[in-house]
């Protein structure tokens, strides 16, 4: 065991990129199928209301991407960024970036509440 640890330490110190590779290979990440299933389950539990809202939002704001539309729905139902990230299998910073893009595409300033604005669009 000590030999394995010594090899591990020497490989990390000789090439710092190894640490990143090891973290990426060992980190549990949901597959695309599981993420898709999570979204489908959420929509099913809403009785299809989310899908209807997605259609309305997509026709009114065609510049929003598919991910931005999903995030819009989850923001509307008051999910926190970390919950959205977990559901969609992305990091929390990516959710924040998407929220910023949604604000820009909807023409909102930073003082306006995104959730309240999305609720007025229903």
Q: Whole-number radius of gyration?
A: 20 Å
Strand content: under 5%
Helix content: over 70%
Number of helices: 8
**Number of separate domains:** 2
Please give the alpha-carbon distance between the first and last residues.
Answer: 60 Å
Say what the CATH topology of the largest domain is: Arc Repressor Mutant, subunit A
What's the CATH superfamily of the largest domain, by name? Winged helix-like DNA-binding domain superfamily/Winged helix DNA-binding domain
Basic shape:
globular
3D architecture notes:
- There is one protein chain.
- With 122 residues, this protein is mainly α.
- It folds into 2 domains: 1-30, no CATH class; 32-120, Winged helix-like DNA-binding domain superfamily/Winged helix DNA-binding domain (Arc Repressor Mutant, subunit A, Orthogonal Bundle).
- The protein is 74% helix and 0% strand.
- The chain contains 8 helices and no strands.
- It has helices at 2-14, 17-26, 32-45, 49-60, 66-76, 81-88, 92-106, 114-120.
- Helix 5 packs across helix 7.
- The longest helix has 15 residues, at 92-106.
Key features of this structure:
Arc Repressor Mutant, subunit A, disordered N terminus, 2 domains, mainly alpha, 122 residues
Helix/strand layout:
Layout: H1 2-14, H2 17-26, H3 32-45, H4 49-60, H5 66-76, H6 81-88, H7 92-106, H8 114-120
Helix pairs in contact: 4-5, 5-7, 5-8, 6-7
């Amino acid at each position: 065991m000590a030999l394995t640890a010594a090899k591990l330490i020497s490989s990390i110190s000789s090439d710092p990129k190894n640490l990143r590779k090891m973290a990426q290979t060992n980190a549990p990440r949901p597959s695309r199928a599981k993420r898709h299933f999570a979204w489908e389950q959420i929509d099913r539990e809403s009785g299809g209301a989310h899908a209807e809202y997605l259609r309305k939002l997509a026709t009114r704001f065609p510049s929003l991407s598919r991910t931005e539309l999903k995030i819009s729905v989850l923001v509307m139902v008051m999910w926190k960024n970390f919950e959205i990230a977990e559901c969609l299998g992305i990091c929390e910073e990516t959710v924040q970036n998407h929220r910023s893009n949604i604000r820009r595409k909807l023409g909102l300033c930073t003082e306006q509440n995104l959730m309240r604005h999305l609720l007025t669009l229903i």
